[in-house]
Amino acid sequence: MSEESGPRAIAFFDVDNTLLRGASLYHVGVGAWRMRFISLADVIAFGWSQTRFLAVGEDGVNISRLRLRAMDIMTGRTRDELVTLSHEIFDSRLIQRLWPETVAVARAHLTAGREVWLVTATAQEVADVIAERLELTGALGTRLATVDGIFTGQLVDGICHGSRKADVAREIAQAREIDLAHCWAYSDSHNDIPLLELVGNPVAVNPDATLRRYAVARGWPIMRMKVAQLKAAGASKKR
């Protein structure tokens, strides 16, 4: 039963470094290599970018170029193949990298009767699988163009990144006649400031340096998680 007593609301969650540690596209790359979609050299390149991303966030990585390369992986492949790949990487790689505190917050929103949507630059199919497996309301991701179910290498409406995230969040709230002043947003990156400023309850999660300064100046709540907490959660799941 819902515990909500206030107005209807949505909680929007970024994925990379917010819901899970690191970049989801790296794990897509590893999964694609295992399925022989790409070469070992591609995986090594993704791995280097992942290391930089973990160390300094999006400030020190050409993340847009990396995302486009990740989308390229699926050119000529089918949507069903990407969905299958997404389930495989969720089970083998993503589930152990989920931040337990952020997942707990998302579930608390659901318990309170709010919708929970992922808003992410990762491919829509990957985002859908993450949302489905976590039993969230839905996901808003980067849409890859298809012809007869086969990816063409083109994007629909560009990468869901920066101000585009704010646009799609606004659209989903308007479609549900939900006041954004009552909504939440969670992110680690300064690139998501447009999304965070859109809602009445912005929260910085393990923020990069720019977002941390911005959040402190505005009195936004800051969530901080540590790798030790992630490892402890993983160890408890194995028992």
UniProtKB/TrEMBL annotation:
It holds the Pfam family HAD. It comes from the Bacteria. Transmembrane segments: none annotated. Belongs to the HAD-like hydrolase superfamily. SerB family. This is HAD-IB family hydrolase. It comes from Cryobacterium arcticum.
